[in-house]
UniProtKB/TrEMBL annotation, chain A:
Pfam families: SOR_SNZ. The active site is at 84 (schiff-base intermediate with d-ribose 5-phosphate). InterPro entries: Aldolase_TIM, PdxS/SNZ, PdxS/SNZ_N, RibuloseP-bd_barrel. It comes from Chlamydomonas schloesseri. Keywords: Lyase, Pyridoxal phosphate, Schiff base. One of its GO terms (molecular function) is protein heterodimerization activity. CDD domains: pdxS (cd04727). D-glyceraldehyde 3-phosphate binds at residue 168. The keyword Membrane does not apply. PANTHER family: PYRIDOXAL 5'-PHOSPHATE SYNTHASE SUBUNIT SNZ1-RELATED (PTHR31829). Signal peptide: none annotated. This is pyridoxal 5'-phosphate synthase (glutamine hydrolyzing).
Automatic annotation (TrEMBL), chain B:
Pfam families: SNO. One of its GO terms (molecular function) is glutaminase activity. CDD domains: GATase1_PB (cd01749). This is glutaminase. Coiled coil: none annotated. Transmembrane segments: none annotated. It comes from Chlamydomonas reinhardtii (Chlamydomonas smithii). Its EC number is 3.5.1.2.
Amino acid sequence: MASEKSSGTFAVKVGLAQMLKGGVIMDVTTAEEARIAEEAGAVAVMALERVPADIRRDGGVARMSDPTMIKAIKAAVTIPVMAKARIGHFVEAQILEALGVDYIDESEVLTPADEIHHINKHNFKVPFVCGCRDLGEALRRIAEGAAMIRTKGEAGTGNVVEAVRHCRAVMGAIRQLQTMDDDELYVYAKEIRAPVELVRQVKTLGRLPVVNFAAGGVATPADAALMMQLGMDGVFVGSGIFKSGDPASRARAIVQAVTHYNNPAVLAEVSSNLGEPMVGIDIREKGFNSYAQRSE
Amino acid sequence: MATGDATPAPRIRVGVLALQGSFREHMTLLQKVPGVEVVEVRTKDELESVAGLIIPGGESTTMALVAERWGLIPELRSFAKAGKPVWGTCAGMIFLAEGAEGQKEGGQTLLGGLDITVSRNFFGAQINSFETRLPAPECVKSHGSTDDFRAVFIRAPAVLAAGPGVEVLAEYALTPEERAKHGRDKVIVGVRKGVLMATAFHPELTTDIRWHQAFVDMVRAHAGEAGGVPGKAPPPLYENLGRLPNRPPDMPIYGQEFLKREDL
């Protein structure tokens, strides 16, 4: 007799993210790049048509990738393949689920399809990761069904400052929450615009109830270790790898840095001779287009 | 440890390979087993200090590459050869297998030692990940509670063939669609031989500590005279940093429903 089985349960959705902890998820645009990422030790790849740095440069509307390209990347590697859908674009998400991607990133890096509503992620068996800038935003995404959270940072800048800001905002708010009286949680939940049940859970756990990765501006092994020492569970690297001088070496180094983030001697060794890092963007520059602020 | 023991079992140190993946989850469950001291293993020194090792779930290619970079592969191989128990879950099962199908292009480094052939992503992509209940083997049942256990499979491998003398601990009966796809009725998902144990599912994602108890039994049985705690565990590397890294608290253990926690 066949065993009774349940797929798409919350434990199974969060479970894959738990297996990715302590790892690096890399943006790739071709099967070749995906192979380089896998060889470097990436725990997963994010398949997308253009890395965020190119989206910034080219402008225009950024959408879900062509399924042909996602299929080619899926065929090229054995590690999980993630792909991005536009915020609120649940049909792109349906397509990605049909393609059998392992995780969907409902991402502010693509041009939002709905400026008010995110995807109702409870309707899907495939798990979702979403970006946040603070605790309230993280909990709103979890309430919608996200099984993994990442900082938004500022994708495509090679500048870690916004990822650090968002990480500290979430962690600081959790520490503050843990000192609060239970009677105060109702008003606090209202202030941060999050469901009070989730706020209560975070107070009990002392952490977000799902896996929490850093993203948006990580470009060096030191950046990755910084995010890990700040208490993140793992790291996404987007443009930082394939916009640098020597992607394979840099990718390998960032993987090592995320495992050995506590060990400055190892970090010194892996940071050596990596070639040119990606050229960064100072987000205080005039006319800077913030992706993080495209959604709430 | 069987209930009703008059003398408390001696302390024993068990390591969890902490290169990547669900090592924290394993540590949390191990700490529930009486008389066990748990150590994160990233270096040769840390490996030498433990009497048994768990290789957690995660990405087997990542773990292999990180381990290789720091020369840990030969050390891990000789660890099991020296008669110290190793338990691999999911990625860890792939690591311990003598052969694996569906590897990345160019293959991947395996520790080997366990006479099984596994299929890396036997069940397919994440939408095919699932949980179920399976009958518990004797070594798990002996720790009480129910006759079955909760088995969570995440992009899981399965054992296609096991050599002579390999003890089958758990089997999964395929659904009709899976049968049509794979041309077989069932697959092996838990095995043991000598000091090596491997499971395709993740006991560390559940509240059931009986698999960890069964592994600690193995470690105790092989620890011998030394009592399983050879010397001191090496100190953590935090001293060099000038600040303690923020260590995220443990993830909760979830049931099937959205945010429905289960208490350990």
